[in-house]
Design brief:
Strand order of the largest sheet: 4-3-2-1-5-6
Largest sheet: 6 strands, mixed
Structural class: alpha/beta
CATH topology: Nucleotidyltransferase, domain 5
Number of domains: 1
Mean pLDDT: 96
CATH class: Alpha Beta
Low-confidence stretches: none
CATH superfamily: Ribonuclease H-like superfamily/Ribonuclease H
Strand content: 15-25%
Number of helices: 5
Length: 186
Amino acid sequence: MGTFAVIDTETTWRDDVMSIGIVTADSKSFLPKDKRYYVLTPFKDHGGMYSNALYAGGILPDLEGPRQSVIEDMICFLDSLGIADIFAYNAVFDLHHLPELRDYFWYDIMKLAAYRQFNGKIPPTADTYSTGKLKRGYGVEAIYRMLSGNHDYREIHNALTDAADELDIMRMLGIGIGRYSAAKIV
């Protein structure tokens, strides 16, 4: 695995995908290499909890169009880079919303970030199950704050910036890419 992708989606009130962010990264350094941002029509106009973040900070999509065009472009992008592995925080959610990408290998960042045996920054006083998993407070925002020490961090809920933040979580965990085999979902 030389290059992998981190994907995030944002959905409408009706649970349709309205945006997709992809950040590709080197599997050794976990540094970003490339990115793509998609806004899906007509869903972007259907409203959602994070509709106001679609163009946050002046971020413009690489492609704004119907789902079929977006999916075709996304697959071409991933395949052109030889990417077979996709990571996401709560990957089951993103895979459910992107069934067209089920032929890729999917890994859930949360399956490592929320466990004491993988995340050395989980405080000894944290409430965990006997498996070592946090009972609460293991969303992107809480884990990012825990790992970075930046207690002012706020998730923007723009699919592209969120994908970049999820890559940061992977880098801050400091776990080699091979250990994510424990987080494979497909």
